[in-house]
Amino acid sequence: MKHQLWKLNHQVLLTFLNNKKGFTLIEASVAIVVLMIGIFSVIQFFPVALQIIGDSQNRTVASSIAIAKLEEVRSSSYDEISTGTIEPKQPASNDTTSYLNRYNRETVVTLVDSNFNLSGTDVGFKKITVTVYWQSPIGDKEKSTSVATVIADF
User: Fold this and answer.
1) Please, which residues have CB within 8 angstroms of residue 78's CB and are 6 or more apart in sequence?
2) With 70 as the cut, is the pLDDT of residue 7 above it?
3) Which of 38, 52, 102, 143 has an alpha carbon within 20 to 30 A of 90's alpha carbon?
């Protein structure tokens, strides 16, 4: 019985080893081509992803620049803050070597009523709006972000 079992296992092993089926050169080539197409498709997304990340970074920096200017204006008393354009669109930094020089900032103060609608008379509310502009790496067009707050004379 042992001998028959060994002989059967030996035959199965020999059949397995003598089986010459496998991948042909054509099948292997097709598999490699399909794999390369997949890899190149994924690689093409990297430059777009980097542009999107750069645009997000620019928006974050622009928001910080706007908030800093907003806090600077808010540190003045209500009567010291004049209405109109208090800072025309200009570079956020006077230093031409600074990365902030790529951003332009504009600050406008308007009178608003208690419903935050524009008002021609001073009823005790001023809206401060700071807008920061930059060149987007996506499409090379100018983008902007604005931050606004209302201060009261109470």
Assistant:
1) 126, 151, 152, 153
2) no
3) 52
Residue 1, pLDDT score? 55
CB 153 within 8 A of CB 81: no
Q: Strands 84-91, 104-111: parallel, antiparallel or unpaired by DSSP?
A: antiparallel
Burial bucket for residue 79 (CB in 10 Å: 0-12, 13-18, 19+): exposed
Q: Token match 């709006």: residue?
A: 129
Whole-number pLDDT of residue 8: 52
Q: How far apart are CA 73 and CA 147, in angstroms?
A: 12
Residue 110: per-residue pLDDT = 94
Cβ contacts of 46 within 8 Å, gap of 6 or more: none
